[in-house]
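Batch manifest, entry 17 of 40.
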Amino acid sequence: MIRRRRLLAIAAAALVPALPALATPVRQWRGVALGAEASITLNHPEAARLIDLSLAEIERLEAVFSLYRADSALMRLNATGRLDTPPFELLDCLALAGRVHAATGGVFDPTVQPLWALHAAHHAANPEAEPPRAETVAAARALTGWDRVRIDPGAIRLDPGMALTLNGIAQGYIADRVAALLRGQGLDRVLVNTGEHVALGGDPRGGPWQVRLRAGEVLLPEAVAIEDRALASSAMTGTTFDAAGTAGHILDPRNGLPGPILWQLVSVTAPQGALADALSTAFCLMDRAEIDRALTAFPRTGLAALVPVPRG
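Output type: structure tokens
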């Protein structure tokens, strides 16, 4: 039983009052991308055409990264352990994943998919159950390890039984690619939200884009202003395996279990959405000192919000 809570981040572009009127109104498309609520906010006389181009790009990239489409490049890799002539986007995303893996001391690890499948199946069969048995977790953990992923332009290869998930980085990567597409069309003031936000320029109505963040059920009082930057948010209990909502979906590769719930919300700003996405995912498993060390590996990255779990 996988329980999803409300999105952590809410684009405030449609909520900001008293902004000046424009000759061409701001348009916002809303829908779903990679299972998350998504939106594209722009101001252009050809908004409908540009949104159609963006949706086609999202569809194309879902065919690379989706874990719910049997024909996606990632699913074909997981099914056979080898993918010849992999798409550039998959190679590009895996290269960044490797950098984040190194900077976080292995905490960010896309090879946890066998563990994720184990926990999901275990709790689906009995939502009230205790975690899987230690020996079962150990067997799944034996199928993980970033050093066992072999990547070159001609093929990606995994050891038998291994599988990858890019759910902690692909939403940000897709936002980056959509933003790049729109920049190539001449736009310089766009907010792309695929579950993570990428801003080209600022709000055409004035100032930077304003994004409100939610920690648990509480809407944080201050919006985060982004302009030519990305913002990604993660929370351990944003999705949970169990009925009680205590077994979070971000698994610790060091022990194969849902991580301890240290933070209600982790939000990261970075030059790219994929980087912000990966770091916010990993930081859910890390203490403040570890987070600060990891940030030094990536210039122009920082914390937009780090909300601890209330104690007592």
